[in-house]
Amino acid sequence: MGSPLARFSVTVDDGHLADLDAVARALRDSGMQVDRVLGTLGLITGQAPADARSTLLAVEGVTSVDEQLRVQLPPPDAPVQ
Amino acid sequence: MIDPPAARRPRRLPGVSTTGRQVVVFADPDGEAVDWSAAGITDVADSRDFTSGRVPAQALRQAGATVFARLGIAVVDAAPDQVSALRSARRPVLSVSPELVHRVLPEDPSAYVRGYRDGVTDLAGRLGSSGPGEGTAPPPPLFEDTPAATWGVQAVQATTSPFTGRGIRVAVLDTGLDLAHPDFAGRPVTAESFVTGVDSAQDGHGHGTHCTGTACGPRVPPAGPRYGVASEAEVFAGKVLSDEGSGDDGGILAGIDWAVANGCAVISMSLGADVAEAHPPYSAAGRRALQQGSLIVAAAGNNADRENGDPGFVGAPANSVEIMAVGALTSALTTAWFSARSLPTPGGEVDLAAPGVDVLSTWPMPTRYETISGTSMATPHVAGLAALWAEATGRRGLELWATLTQASRRLGEPSVDVGSGLALAPQEGAGTA
């Protein structure tokens, strides 16, 4: 069986900002479930098998593939937020 | 024409000598030609007449006037009253000042003695004795909440600023906003949720409502003191964190994308993860946001425990080069015990500091107001101030960033903790120079 899904943020290089949809298609073909194509920033977010990072990084126009960070605020009644 | 009255001129220190020549500053570089003959000056050397624009020292000494065309400045060998004849000429003169003689700064023989004294004082402190001038009590507060305004908006001088953020869009990416809060009644608010499965940007936590209040709360709230900085900014409330206070890159980046696409000059992000490495997607987002005129301001983080000797570190996304990191100050303008210290890596520095201890602001109804602490509370102070500077100067992106740091008040605290110091609001006349 494949490895479990992880959330990734894919950074597209400056030379491919006009071809974001093509990059997103290539990422899908490489096994990524694309959630969002962020046209203003040149970023694509979604999910893929945790071990797929190097495959996604090989897609033309991709400059960085990073597992998404998670933010967690303290509870509302915490004195320091 | 600006001719500062004598009383406003800075006091000249004894020992400063002048050459007898005058330095004339013209209103705009490369404008109309100057009528030197009006001042009786005939021998004019212009930097444009020399190869590669360099005026040789010989020419500078001999000419009646030397013009540095690119700077709009001339050095004139004439008495002040003679030069004042230029004032009636076509090209306006901004100032006429005596040319000063500058010298290499002398070595300071007392520096060694001071260094030795500081070393002894430091050693005494480390040994736990109460040496001379050393107190264990915290410094007294410099600001306090009054019936009119919180200590925070007083400290950043928002209360005396004529600017309100009018015409500037400010995005607060957080847990959303209490959309029915009476303090925001009648204000234009654009709200959007980027949390999977959540359609409304309504704040079910409180953090986002608190931060939005600090950045954009009203000039005169219907009840209680003023707590907000940019009272007429247009609010973009992006819910990127759930009511449980959690979120991931996907929603946060989508919120940044939305804010930039909507032309928000300022994006406030009181959120972060305790990782010491810059996160590439946030660096790319910050860079492309700046290029499109949006400045991202983020919380340095609360991972310090200074009372126990742990200064913490700036987390992501604030530790990206392209994102401004904000530390938290007490009302004595000292570093808050929880406020994270700069990392030694590029981008990992704290850039600015702002009020972040015992900060009163809006909270979802029926509570209405709450007083809490954190670099999360310092960040929206800076975001609101950025909106005021954006309004006052028209600057955006990196220029706006530079303006904020330049205009901040330097503090005695280490720069690794407070960066350029306390962020301040533009006052009357700012942005007209």
TrEMBL record, chain A:
This is Ketohydroxyglutarate aldolase. It comes from Geodermatophilus obscurus.
From TrEMBL, chain B:
The keyword Lipoprotein does not apply. Keywords: Hydrolase, Protease, Serine protease. GO terms for biological process: proteolysis. The keyword Hydrolase applies. Gene3D superfamilies: Peptidase S8/S53 domain. GO terms for molecular function: serine-type endopeptidase activity. Residues 165-394 form the Peptidase S8/S53 domain. The active site is at D174 (charge relay system), H207 (charge relay system), S376 (charge relay system). Residues 413-433 are annotated as: Disordered. Belongs to the peptidase S8 family. This is Subtilase family protein.
